[in-house]
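Note to self: keep these together.
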Amino acid sequence: MKIGYARVSSTDQNLARQIKALKKADCEKIFEEKQSGKSTENRPELQAAIAYVRQGDTLVIASLDRLSRNYDDASDIIKQIRDKQVKMEVLDAPFLSMRTGDSDMDKFMFDLLTKLLAYMAQTERKKIRERQRQGIEIAKANGKYRGTRPAYAADTPNPQKRFIYRRIVDQLRSKATGAPISYRAIAAETGVSVQTVINIKNRLV
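Structure:
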């Protein structure tokens, strides 16, 4: 049995083109939803489709990014499908389909696809880090880079965290004048980590 899955990212987009293609591919049941593909969270129809398919079925999608735009998530979904002994058919990239009629070739295509997705995910992470690095360098050159704002500081927007910061500072000053109090004790009293206390202490120096 062929089961289709169609997705668009927002409510003002149309699923008609994908549904037409899935019906043309002889899908007997189609799951459809309008949700972002950045992650698999809040994707009830995708989860329903994965739960619905049975051994020997084929999950059909119009394109690979309909599963997810996150390569790690897409790889996890494909593994779930494979574990259920379900094949996958990608309409706009038939060479990625795990439905060749040859079990050895299907396994090869699965391994190839998961490795390809892992490579793409790693490459994307490297690109993101490089863009961040370049952005920081440009900001530093323009005198606009201040780094990440500490969660606990005198000017943090959260009033509770400002209060905790002031309490930690008071205790650190008491410690500096000889009060027998440890970083661990300060952390336990204020509900933060020891490293947070040390970071605040270092900023006071």
